[in-house]
Design goal:
Protein name: Thioredoxin domain-containing protein
Organism: Ceratopteris richardii (Triangle waterfern)
Number of helices: 5
Order of helices and strands: EEHEHEHEHEEH
InterPro entries: MRL7/MRL7L, Thioredoxin-like_sf, Thioredoxin_domain
Radius of gyration: 23 Å
Domain Thioredoxin: 97-170
Pfam families: Thioredoxin (PF00085)
Shape: elongated
Distance between the termini: 65 Å
């Protein structure tokens, strides 16, 4: 059976009971969660299912790699290729602004890619989970973009930027275009 009542004599009180079970094993990768609102009319047989909200799994939509403090050194300092790091706060008071900057950053990278130029690598660091890393960098404002080239910090900027602004900054630092 999929469940056991608590009164059942086969009930296990072991602390590791159920370990090794992953919910993701039950679903396909393209599983989508959909809210549906039911509207009841006078009789119960006439119920309409109307789709309300379609939730997408956001991590699959982003091309920026999530980096934690354990992989920061390897990802940022040991690879000499150009890199843009977004330090963001997902659940803070600036969460919505951080989300929009991430979208703008990815839009800028896609536009660079379409022009047949190699865009910088994109990473993101969640300040809510990586408090020690963010404190070590001295970042207090979110969102903050860090521009790295050859394993060295060349520029950082806080606040909201559009994809056009990001294109000008990336072009200046990584492709030798005139100063924005």
């Amino acid at each position: 059976p999929l469940f056991i009542e608590e009164d059942d004599p086969n009930w296990l009180d072991e602390p590791d009971d159920g370990w090794g079970f992953k919910v993701s094993d039950l679903f396909k990768e393209d599983f989508r969660v959909t809210n549906r609102r039911k509207y009841d009319k006078d009789d119960d047989d006439d119920v309409q299912d109307i789709p309300n909200t379609d939730w997408d799994f956001q991590p699959q939509n982003f091309s920026a790699l999530d980096v934690d403090s354990m992989s920061w050194t390897q990802t940022v300092l040991h690879d000499p290729s150009p890199l843009v790091a977004l330090i963001y706060e997902r659940y803070g008071k600036r969460g919505r602004e951080c989300y929009h900057v991430l979208r703008e950053l990815e839009d800028a990278a896609n536009r660079i890619w379409k022009s047949h130029v190699l865009p910088p690598r994109l990473i993101k660091v969640n300040a809510s989970f990586e408090e020690d890393l963010v404190a070590a960098m001295g970042i207090e404002e979110f969102p903050t973009l860090i521009f790295v080239k050859g394993g060295k910090l060349i520029h950082y900027q806080s606040g909201y930027l559009t994809s056009d602004d990001l294109l000008r900054i990336i072009s200046y630092f990584y492709h030798g275009v005139a100063r924005p």
